[in-house]
Write a structure and sequence with these properties.
The protein is α+β, with helices and mostly antiparallel strands. Helices cover about 40% and strands about 10% of the residues. A 3-stranded mixed sheet has the order 1-6-5, with no helix packed on it. Strands 2-4-3 form a 3-stranded antiparallel sheet. Helix 6 crosses helix 7.
Length: about 700
């Protein structure tokens, strides 16, 4: 009643003071335009001519290169630097800690350029938006009054190609980063800092000298232990028997695990712990031990901090705690989470805003708010701070959207995820174009050979790999989906995305829509269902760091922009795949997409899992492709089109640069088009070279 009276009163005031209302309206519009103009101007203040890039001398793997140059991809210097340095809400480690943390076995900083280069991230010099000179895609995130270092899109989606001492930076290209190696080194550094008195003293002194978030030694040491446990937990949960090496990550598997970690409740966790058994079917924990492990743990939402406590207690033998060995701890991990054992190449980002489906398996349509949901899921995976907690039943938009509205408790999806910036970054990518083969650096294209190759491409490739105009502003890129049995490439990523399951927490018994009807989420459910619900909840929750009016205004603007600015419309997937059915509502995900190949020359290694080093090898039958090669060297091979595949010790299992195709997840099988196995005539050697020459022109 009060609201109705207030609205009536407002209309009466407007009618009596209409001219004043018009003036206020014009003033408000002008103010909004000024704010928008100021924001756009500020966005272009960082315009360093080198885009922050630096030369490296005696770098990792014996590489040295001059200051990287950039190709014409539709972005200015300011556009690149804004993309590199705009936070999406990731909080991997307190910012003061990252600035001060030393390498485990050295007094050199973990963030030192040569160390960053070793993990194949891209070192940068200080610029306006990056005053501390962090690597590409390493940014400061401020959440709830504290500063954190986190990843932004650029960390995994900016590439580099070297050739004879020259370096070419590729915006939107796949990174060669070894994220697992970097996070393992971070874990070791945090552990060593806690146990080494001198290193700890230097660390505390450096953190306090920043005069930022910490005022005394006690605060520093408390958070040092907390964040050391958090990083260790992440690495333990996501340990895999597959060595990803460089240029790959099982992003889906890690996103899945992070969601499960933040939705499982205490009762479900207890049930999982009691059911863990050895290979001979003996339970490794009794109820008394489980109760000791879970003492004081939240009843509803657990999260990473308390999960770290649980894992620490599982390994302790104090009191009634079980003192599990590492093998049994991994058995506990397997009862709750899923091994992320299907690493894939980091996809390139040009044309992403023009594509109907983006992910390798076509998980979500790119229409409407699809991009916002996709990017929110990504931030969940790359260390968004998820302060999710249970709240008493009451009106909650997220509860309505996720299907929790009838629950006794609902989830408050408060987090550091920056929905506004996610929308801005997606819009920013709209102008990014694929890189054109730089003939002045990598050599001239044989135009006669390329012309012959175009005919080969039209016969053998174009039915799946659409040819587009890279600079056509209204281009539409259609993903052609191929069932894994048809294309024959490694099935691990696709099958994991459908088969992996976990405890659904508060999402148990909610209804969730699929393309073939609604399903009921079970206690243990496909993780794709849990992720879908969690992503909806996060998207429905305004930014916690803004005051109330701005929170709602920014959130409404962001949702509206997602709906009305997105030119991609809902459409049925194209290609040769098995459709979803009521018996298998996610069957269509057992497929991989074929992409347009413009700029593909800059995205080696090839196939979705990076199992083929260059284009020449990709055109060979599986049995003729290399089964062992090296990954991690940025030196380019312009003849075979890919990175050089030598330079490591293939016989040394500790050499992270070696790639072996034997384990599932690393298979280099399939995609044998033009080899005589696809029902068409086998390509001659000259036709293969002609085809490669044409692909260089795309």
């Amino acid at each position: 009643m009060f609201i109705i009276k207030a609205v009536i009163g407002l209309f009466r005031w407007i009618r009596r003071h209409f001219r004043t209302f018009l003036k206020l309206k014009i003033l408000f519009i002008l103010l909004v335009l000024i704010i928008l103009a100021a924001g756009k101007t500020y966005q272009h203040w960082d315009d360093d001519p080198d885009r922050g890039a630096v030369a490296i001398t005696n770098g990792a793997h014996g590489e040295s290169y001059s200051t990287p140059v950039y190709l014409k991809q539709g972005w200015s210097e300011a556009d690149s630097l804004w993309f590199y340095n705009t936070t999406q809400g990731s909080g991997l480690l307190p910012y003061d800690f990252f600035l001060s943390l030393e390498q485990a076995d050295s007094t050199e900083l973990l963030r030192a350029n040569n160390n960053i280069d070793k993990f194949r991230y891209l070192p940068q010099k200080p610029t306006f938006f990056n005053p501390d000179g962090l690597a590409v895609g390493f940014v400061k995130e401020t959440y709830q009054g504290h500063d954190y270092m986190g990843y932004t899109c650029a960390a995994c989606h900016t590439g580099q190609v070297n050739f004879k001492g020259k370096a070419i930076r590729i915006d939107g290209g796949p990174s060669m980063a070894d994220m697992v190696g970097f996070l393992t080194a971070m874990e070791k550094s945090l552990e060593q800092t806690q146990t080494d008195a001198q290193k700890r003293e230097r660390f505390v002194k450096a953190v306090l000298a920043l005069k930022n978030n910490y005022s005394n030694e006690e605060e520093v040491l408390k958070d040092l232990k907390k964040w050391g446990n958090t990083i260790k937990l992440y690495n333990t949960v996501n340990h895999s028997h597959i060595d990803y090496g460089y240029a790959r990550l099982d992003a889906f598997g890690r996103i899945y695990n992070r969601v499960l970690e933040h939705v499982i409740n205490k009762a479900q966790l207890k049930l999982a712990l009691l059911q863990v058994t050895t290979p001979d079917d003996k339970r490794i924990l009794n109820e008394e031990q489980v109760d000791a492990v879970l003492e004081g743990i939240n009843e509803t939402i657990i999260g990473d901090v308390q999960f770290a406590v649980v894992m620490e207690r599982l390994g302790s033998s104090t009191g009634k705690l079980p003192g599990l060995n590492l093998r049994d701890q991994l058995r506990v991990r397997e009862a709750i989470f899923n091994e992320p054992d299907a690493p894939v190449s980091y996809p390139f980002l040009w044309d992403i805003t023009h594509s109907d489906y983006v992910q390798w398996n076509g998980l979500a349509a790119n229409a409407g708010v699809g991009p916002l949901g996709r990017n929110t899921g990504e931030v969940i995976g790359v260390f968004g701070i998820l302060d999710w907690k249970a709240q008493e039943k009451g009106f909650s938009l997220s509860a309505w959207i996720t299907g929790e509205k009838s629950k006794k408790h609902t989830i408050d999806f408060k987090s550091s995820i920056d929905l506004t910036n996610l929308g801005r970054i997606e819009s920013h990518l709209n102008s990014l174009q694929s890189p054109v083969w730089p003939e002045d650096i990598l050599g001239k294209i044989n135009r006669d050979s390329a012309k012959r190759g175009e005919l080969v491409y039209n016969e053998y490739c174009s039915s799946c790999h659409q040819v587009i105009e890279r600079d056509n502003w209204d281009r539409l890129v259609v993903a052609n989906m191929s069932n894994i049995d048809v294309v024959g490439t490694d099935p691990a990523m696709a099958t994991n995305s459908v088969a992996y399951a976990g405890y659904a927490g508060n999402f148990e018994s909610i209804y969730q829509e699929t393309d073939v009807g609604s399903v009921v989420v079970q206690k243990r459910a496909p993780v794709v269902q849990v992720l879908t619900a969690a992503t909806k909840g996060a998207v429905a929750t305004p930014d916690a760091d803004k005051y109330a009016v701005r929170r709602i205004a920014d959130w409404a603007y962001m949702l509206g922009k997602s709906f009305f600015d997105n030119e991609i419309k809902p459409s049925v997937k194209s290609g040769n795949y098995k459709p979803d059915t009521t018996a298998n509502p996610y069957q269509s995900l057992l497929s991989y997409k074929a992409r347009s190949l413009n700029g593909i020359w800059a995205t080696a290694p090839f196939l979705h899992n990076g199992s083929v080093p260059n284009l020449w090898d990709l055109l060979l039958p599986t049995e003729e492709r290399p089964t062992e090669f090296c990954v991690g060297n940025r030196e380019f091979d312009p003849v075979n089109v890919g990175f050089v595949k030598t330079g490591c010790d293939i016989t040394d299992p500790k050499d992270k640069r070696r790639f072996i195709v034997e384990p599932l997840g690393n298979h280099n099988t399939g995609h044998e088009y033009g080899t005589g196995k696809d029902g068409k005539e086998k390509l001659t050697e000259q036709e293969r070279w002609d085809l490669i020459e044409y692909i260089k022109t795309l």
